[in-house]
Fold this protein.
Amino acid sequence: MRVTGTGHASMRIDTAAGSILCDPWVNPAYFASWFPFPDNSLLDWESLGQVDYLYVSHLHRDHFDAKHLRDFVSKDATVLLPEFPTSEMEDEFRALGFTKFLKAPNEQVVELPGGLKIMIQALTSPTDGPIGDSSLWVEYDGVRLLNQNDARPTDLSVFAELGHVHAHLLQFSGAIWYPMVYELPQAAKTAFGKQKRDRQFDRTWRYIDDLKASHVFPIAGPPCFLDDALWQFNDIHGDEGNIFPDQSVFLSEYAKVGGTNGIVLLPGSVAEVTTEGASTTHPVPVQEFFANKVAHLEEMRERKRPIIEAEKASWRHPEVDVLGEMKRRIEPLLDESIYLAKGVGGPVRFDLVGYDGESVESIVVDFPGKEVRPYAEEKVRYRFRTDRSLIEHLLFIDEVDWVNSLFLSCRFSAARIGQYNEFVYAFFKCLSEERLQYAEGWYDEHERTTDAEDITLGDWVVQRRCPHLKADLTRFGIVEGDQLTCQLHGWRFDLPSGRCLTSVGHKVRAHRVDAETPAPAGEAVI
Ligand code: FES
């Protein structure tokens, strides 16, 4: 099995029974904030795109690059579709001209002509990607590969049960706006960033240890930030709180925990993977490439500047009545929302900075009041500050997912009182009837599910499944003192009270091993 690195989370898998192109991403994403690192735009995409199969793990724009798919990927390719709850992905592919689809039944091995086998695991909670993320398992001639990508299943047993995996490709770096955009003192930001960076690596080690593959390939990040306004997010400034470590940092951190089987794929690197081992060739020596990272980024920044400027010029739509349009689109959804609205629980304020860089229009999405209105000087728990032009553009293009556009762009700042609230982001990725209904239904079901099984961790008896997204705490739970941390997303819980320290709601059921009467059962998820 041949695996060609094509940048970020992308790869091309070649076997004698067919080829699969995965997640090809070349054009900037999220308001021209993210670019693939290392640069992959100079690869021979005309030939890379001539494949038998195409697999895109999810709809985040650094995985689903519509322009690139339209221009460079053969429309004769069969699209391998994860079993997602909505038809959005298939609809998007059809709009690009793809007509051949294989809807892979979730977690079932499918044998393709020639003996190529695949299995796709779809994750479908409202917090998994843009309503859905997935991983692809491939087997040909006894060689097995798992492209876990940036999916975060609670465990990898469904893949491990299919036999020893030879190539495990997974995310290790950051892909979020936290904590950089928060209006916090720099020291706090650094401390939070460092915690996050450590947690990302811990989670990666956990997955690697779960699967024990012959070779581990760090993929799916980091992106690079080429706009001058975002340049500081690149991990080139010696900031230990930077959440975007690169593949060379992965190798050195992995070595510290005893990892010796890591293989970095640069764009154009080719790994021949067999049951016996892997041999890799690179377009340039890997160490040399990372030693020259700053020069690579600077050169790329100059080359891509016109693209960024052209994108920026397309965002202003002064004719858009932002308040009126937000009312028109968001209020009907607020009316229908039960779980998400209750989960957010208060007003969310948007401060929109005008073209002059100074004037500010403040709009409140009032979840309890179910309306969108001008800010009325009340106290709000969540506040976002961004350019009015970005919101104009989102309304102009009728964007239904503000996470997959505005928030991932990092072109905003945020402040909040109290804990992280996942419902805020879940709502703003569900600005369509279909998505909202799905998310509401999911939370409804989730709330009804009682999770009676308990386990013992240290001195504590706790519910087996994490109150966040049901990770198995026998694997992901760590108790230190009176605190439980679930390593899947790093959420922390105060065990004596059961209170979640990371996000609103999500109480855990727990009591001391020697306590006679267990604490009351965990609260509902919201
Ligand atoms: S499942 Fe997300 S922190 Fe536990």
About this structure: The pocket of FE2/S2 (inorganic) cluster is lined by residues 466, 468-469, 471, 486, 488-489, 491 (CB under 6 Å). The first helix runs from residue 45 to 48. The two ends are 46 Å apart (CA to CA). The CA atoms of residues 60 and 224 lie 16 Å apart.
